[in-house]
UniProtKB/TrEMBL annotation:
EC class: transferase
Gene3D superfamilies: 3.40.1280.10
Pfam families given in the database record: SPOUT_MTase
Subcellular location: Cytoplasm
Protein's name according to its UniProt entry: Ribosomal RNA large subunit methyltransferase H
UniProt keyword terms in alphabetical order: Cytoplasm, Methyltransferase, rRNA processing, S-adenosyl-L-methionine, Transferase
Lineage: Bacteria, Pseudomonadati, Bacteroidota, Saprospiria, Saprospirales
Recorded name of the encoding gene: rlmH
Membrane spanning residue stretches: none
Record's catalysed reaction(s): pseudouridine(1915) in 23S rRNA + S-adenosyl-L-methionine = N(3)-methylpseudouridine(1915) in 23S rRNA + S-adenosyl-L-homocysteine + H(+)
GO CC terms of this entry: cytoplasm
EC number: 2.1.1.177
Protein residues bound to S-adenosyl-L-methionine: L73, G105, L124, S125, A126, M127, T128, F129
Family stated for the protein in its record: Belongs to the RNA methyltransferase RlmH family.
GO molecular function: rRNA (pseudouridine-N3-)-methyltransferase activity
Length: 157
């Protein structure tokens, strides 16, 4: 199964981009995975938060196929330890869907339409992180999960 990760908004800090690139490169050895930044909404700064999340949500939904499994990274989602997340991911990778799609929302989260379409939501922590930091943390957790699935040393080193 192919894995697709969609991000809303660019990462402005170089140190976060560098860290993210390390894990993206490593993940390529384990599975077909693509990371895509959705374009910023034009004149988004002039919109209300509700209008912005609606437009960001539509941009995301335009990329989702009917047979995709859509998983949102959201503070209200299910929480997993690293081993439990790896077990969950392994089950997901064996489902009949063509793509497993993860989405990281923008600063205001997701629209109601995106929540309604989602198959699952995951929270990385009870704490709140910037969407830019979540990108790095999630890439690392995906990599960690793959090493757990393959019984490699990274998780315990």
């Amino acid at each position: 199964m192919k894995v697709q990760v969609y991000y809303t908004g660019k990462t402005s800090e170089q140190y976060l981009r560098t860290g993210e690139e390390i894990y993206i490169r490593r993940l390529g050895h384990y599975l077909p995975i693509t990371f895509t930044v959705l374009p910023d909404i034009k004149q988004g700064g002039k919109l209300t938060p509700e209008q912005l999340i609606d437009r960001e949500g539509q941009a995301l939904l335009d990329k989702i196929n009917p047979d995709d499994r859509l998983v949102l990274l959201d503070e209200g989602g299910s929480t997993y330890g690293s081993v439990a997340f790896a077990e969950w991911l392994e089950r997901e990778l064996h489902r009949p869907a063509r793509r497993l799609v993860f989405a990281v929302g923008g600063a205001f989260g997701f629209s109601r339409q995106v929540y309604d379409r989602a198959d699952h939501t995951i929270s990385l922590s009870a704490m709140t992180f910037s969407h830019q930091m979540v990108r790095l943390f999630f890439a690392e957790q995906l990599y960690r999960a793959m090493t757990i699935i393959r019984n490699e040393k990274y998780h315990n080193s």
